[in-house]
Specification:
The complex is a heterodimer of chains A (about 450) and B (about 270). With about 450 residues, chain A is of the alpha/beta class. Chain A contains ten helices and 19 strands. In chain A, the strands form four sheets. A six-stranded mixed beta sheet of chain A has the order 5-6-7-3-8-9, with helices on both faces. Helix content of chain B is about 75%, strand content about 0%. The chains are: A alpha/beta (about 450), B mainly alpha (about 270).
Chain lengths: ~450, ~270
């Protein structure tokens, strides 16, 4: 299939919210207006070309599921049009439309018939569906006895085995175990190869970036961004973890030259954990990153700013594996200090320390004693040798004897973008490079030297 | 409402739906008949056993407890056959209409999550009463044969009656299902109306027994026409009222088409209310 698979034009969906069900009746009978309007989608337009995978990102309530349901045809639009070409199969919400009391096998038949297959064609595919879902042992058990992961596996298997032209997947992928997720992605890629179109919603930026050709970021019913998945993923990450004042321009870093204007459009410094409020005593926990940061220390010197920047000194929220970055720690003395030492710790999402060092251990470097109010900026250059995933950066400033002045634990949450060259769910990127040596030549060379 | 073009379009749409999805209709109807009893020890035996038991209770009641006589007949069996020939179809109507309001709202997950023609859901409710109807009619037919009423020659009449019955109830179920999505109270309203309706149909009243006012109501209720047809086929063994036999197919078809059109016009809004 070529050309447009899905065309969405100026789509608008508003829900009428009624306080009580009977208000709907009264209003229908010609009474005064009793509803409150809620706009779930507003002026949404986009196209999906045949043979492409489009990812939808957005926070809860952004309108993703509403959009999918309208495209799938289970919900009507308030205004605007949706045109689809070909058979649409959808996995909407968890649990799908399967019947809880029927066995898995019966549900395959029912699901297939619902999606418009004939019994004969289902007969010829049922073995494939069961095999793909890996539910051989349980296929004749009632659907309700399945775990949510098993239910999603069956739903995915049925929806993809009916060979739709357009496949719509709403978060069902997140439920299967890692192995099944990999299989699902392989199947999605295979779909794409065969010229089918896929629309995926997922909360996992990594998942989307690794499988989509294009992504759309929805927020409060509007398209915030439409473009290359990695860039959209960055924007989504900003939206999730950035400060609420999203429109604020980036504050230039103290001690560095102002941005050279080469890429002014770069998102502002959101990953920075900024604390310029010196007068207050250090709080035990600050909410800088969704309440994850834990802060302690005697406060003789404070880390007033901690952020990750790229080689051009632009603040970054997401890292590319193997790229070079710097962790920038800005320290301000509250009292007269002795010699200081700053350190950085990196942990993964499971809380394992994957890297830690400080300037003394690394280069026998210390910061000269500071006067009250004096500042020092420490930069630690590093290469992001991590594999894809979520990582937390912590910074410390301490006296050389180890007395902690300020520790900002998990102050920065960042994401390393997926790496296509290595397997997912691995920890580090060893910069692999394969080459094939000709064994015979090698043997000859050995003979010559002997 | 009676515009031939709109009704014709609805009819064509329905036919193409059936042509494309007859397997799904059959599968869903089969499950509708059996699914109520899945998970129970006797399982689908209930689908046959329940109507049989009910008929047995009614036969006992009208043969032994409430003995009545038709004019010009001594046997209470004759009266029992007369009453049951109306009661058996009524039971099937009651079952279908009682389940109609939840045909869609009770399958919200299916309607919201799967892309499929949900017109099938009310249809399967209407067709799903087949065991009740079939067993009821068969039992009454056999009783009629025992007391020398009816006869094999009326089988074609019976087929017409059953066809009209299914078409009419399908139309009514479409209406109830569509409204039931938006107004959940419909289910309870229908339950009440059905219990009253039992006495507003020509079921218990022998010929000429019902009060005048009630007879007017009979003519207003579409179900009455079905019952008269059944009674002709099962008890009298002949067409006793030509007008009824002409009116019933027309009423059934119109009710079906109007119900189907109402359903189709409300269908796009289902997603908002479920």
């Amino acid at each position: 299939m070529s050309g447009l698979a899905i065309a969405v034009r100026r789509l608008r969906k508003s829900y009428r919210l009624y306080a009580r069900p009977r208000d709907m009746l009264f209003e229908a009978l010609g009474g005064r207006q009793r509803h409150r309007e809620f706009v779930a989608l507003d002026e949404v337009s986009f196209d999906v070309a045949g043979g492409s995978v489009l990812g939808l990102m957005g926070r809860n309530g952004a309108g993703k599921s509403t959009l999918l349901r309208i495209i799938a045809g289970t919900l009507d639009a308030t205004a605007g049009t949706v045109t689809t070409s070909g058979r649409v199969a959808a996995i909407l919400e968890l649990g799908t439309g399967f019947h809880a009391d029927y066995s898995g096998r019966e549900n395959i038949y029912l699901g297939g018939l619902c999606l418009g297959l004939s019994r004969k064609r289902i007969d010829s595919r049922v073995a494939e569906v069961i095999e793909f879902s890996e539910l051989e042992e349980f296929i004749d058990q009632p659907f309700r006895t399945y775990s949510s992961g098993m239910q999603a596996r069956l739903a995915f298997s049925v929806a993809t085995c009916v060979d739709p032209d357009i496949l719509i997947i709403d978060e069902a992928l997140a439920v299967g175990d890692a192995r099944f997720q990999l299989k699902s992605f392989d199947r999605i890629r295979e779909f794409k190869r065969r010229g089918k179109s896929i629309l995926v919603v997922s909360h996992s930026i990594n998942q989307l970036v690794s499988v989509c050709d294009r992504a759309i970021l929805l927020d409060r019913g509007r398209i915030l961004m439409d473009g290359e998945p990695n860039a959209v993923g960055n924007a989504y990450h900003e939206l999730l973890f950035g400060p609420p004042t999203a429109a604020e321009p980036a504050a230039p870093l103290a001690g560095t030259q102002a941005n050279d204007g080469a890429r002014q459009a770069e998102p502002p410094a959101r990953a920075a954990a900024t604390d310029l409020d010196l007068g207050e005593p250090p709080p035990e926990v600050t909410g800088a990153e969704g309440g994850r940061e834990h802060r302690y220390g005697d406060g003789a010197a404070r880390i007033i700013d901690f952020q990750l920047v790229d080689t051009q000194d632009r603040a970054v929220t997401r890292l590319q594996s193997l790229e070079t970055y710097a962790a920038v720690v800005t320290i301000r003395a509250a009292r007269q200090t002795e010699e200081l030492c700053a350190g950085v710790l990196v942990r993964n999402a499971r809380g394992q320390d994957i890297f830690a060092t400080d300037m003394m251990r690394c280069q026998d470097l210390t910061i000269a004693p500071l006067m009250p109010g004096e500042e020092a900026i420490v930069r630690m250059r590093f290469r992001a040798n991590m594999a894809a995933g979520t990582y937390f950066f912590s910074a410390t400033v301490a006296r050389c004897d180890g007395t902690k002045h300020d520790v900002r634990f998990d102050a920065i949450m960042t994401e390393v973008a997926p790496v296509t060259t290595i397997y997912t769910d691995t920890l580090v990127n060893l910069e692999p490079e394969f080459c094939i040596s000709d064994l015979r030549l090698l043997a000859q060379a050995r003979e010559l030297t002997e | 409402m009676l515009a031939p073009s709109a009704n014709g379009a609805a009819f064509r749409h329905f036919l193409s739906l059936i042509r494309r999805h007859h397997e799904l209709v059959w599968e869903m109807t089969r499950r509708e008949m059996l699914e109520r009893y899945t998970g129970q020890v006797l399982g689908s035996l209930w689908a046959l056993g329940l109507p049989l038991l009910t008929m047995g209770i009614y036969i006992f009641a009208f043969l032994v407890l409430f003995q009545g006589h038709l004019p010009g007949s001594d046997s209470s069996l004759g009266y029992a056959v007369f009453v049951l020939s109306g009661l058996a179809p009524w039971m099937a109507v009651q079952e279908a209409l009682g389940r109609g309001p939840t045909a869609i709202s009770g399958n919200a997950n299916l309607v919201k999550q799967i892309v499929f023609p949900n017109e099938i859901l009310p249809l399967r409710v209407a067709l799903g009463v087949s065991p009740t109807l079939g067993i009821g009619v068969a039992v009454v037919g056999m009783l009629a044969l025992i007391c020398g009423l009816g006869g094999w020659s009326t089988v074609p009449l019976l087929i017409v009656a059953v066809a009209c019955h299914l078409v009419m109830t399908a139309g009514l179920v479409y209406v109830l299902a569509a409204i039931g999505v938006f107004i959940r109270d419909v289910r309870d309203i229908v339950t009440v109306l059905l219990s009253i309706g039992l006495f507003l149909q020509p079921i218990f009243y022998g010929p000429g027994v019902a009060p005048r006012a009630l007879e007017m109501i009979f003519y207003l209720s579409p179900i009455s026409y079905l019952i008269w047809c059944y009674r002709d086929a099962l008890v009298y063994g002949e067409i006793s009222n030509t007008v009824v036999w002409l009116a019933t197919p027309i009423i059934s078809t119109l009710l079906f088409l109007i119900g189907y059109r109402l359903y189709r016009s409300l269908q796009p809004a289902f997603g908002n209310a479920l």
